[in-house]
Write a structure and sequence with these properties.
The N and C termini lie far apart (84 Å). The chain has 346 residues and is of the alpha+beta class. The chain contains nine helices and 15 strands.
Length: 346
Amino acid sequence: MKRYIVFLLVIISYALQAQEVSLQGKITNYSGKDSLKLLIYSSNTPVDISIPVSAKGEFSYTFTNTYTNYAKLFFNPNDFILLILSPKEKITITANYNNMSGDNTVKGSKHTELWNSTNANLQQFAKNTQELQKKYERAIDSVEKKRIDYVISFVKQNPTSLASLAVIEVLDISMYSNIYEFLDSSLMSVHKGNPIVENFHTNLKQALFLKEGSLAPDIVLQDENGKQIALSSLKGKVVLIDFWASWCRPCRQEIPNLKKAYSIYGNRGFEIYSVSIDNDKNAWFQALSQENMPWITVYDAQKVYSSMYNVTSIPHTLLLGPDGKIIAKNVRGGALEEYLQQIIGK
């Protein structure tokens, strides 16, 4: 009976050895701190294994694997080597610590090597596609530039013709406002009173009212203490006008970014002029107590100034220079700090 048990154990041990998978290899540029992670997808819940790595970046690990399974080998889960492991395989891996997924060699794993060669071909297809896209984008940009130049030339040569009015819409008004203004002046000198020209003149005036480089209209509103504060009183400072409301989630989410910028530049010539468009003044008061905003906060109860500034959605911001002129619109997050670095300095 004992001989049978011993024989059975030998058979089981041999069977397990026959199913062993051996991993060994070296990690270049290894810092000597992290362990390798091996995730084996043999069931609904992956098996998570930590593999020690020597100071030289060398590692080895052996485990039993009944079936062929997917696995991921990594230090960082976003930068991994995909392995397809089968029983009895002895696999050698070399990889770059700083680029595991892109700079690695795997030998001794049939399915992994097949995947790597296929993936390399797929990546080459993708690279070829990207190169073609860039090539045609350059060609399209070249044609588009010629189209823009043609329209500008046509308008300049025919400044009093309504034909120019029909084609100028090709031009982006924010980039070519000077051409729009030139055509408007020319048409009004000849066709004043014409409803089509008058409508163009009115719409253009409104569109350019708050363009970058123009002087921001003054705002005079009361703060939470009932004190009237004029935007014009802040001339000489870089000012962010911030139209917001207590119910606006994106507005509230932006406040930490504003606090960060204000903590750095608030004592160096930067001010924030927050204009609430809340319908309920008490909601505004409650938001102020919750957010503890250390800058100027005023309340536009009648929406006079939000209408003047063409505010159709919030948060709506305008960054003003020390001269009170608009530098940029809808500046948020890290972009605000970048502007402040350029204007005020680090």
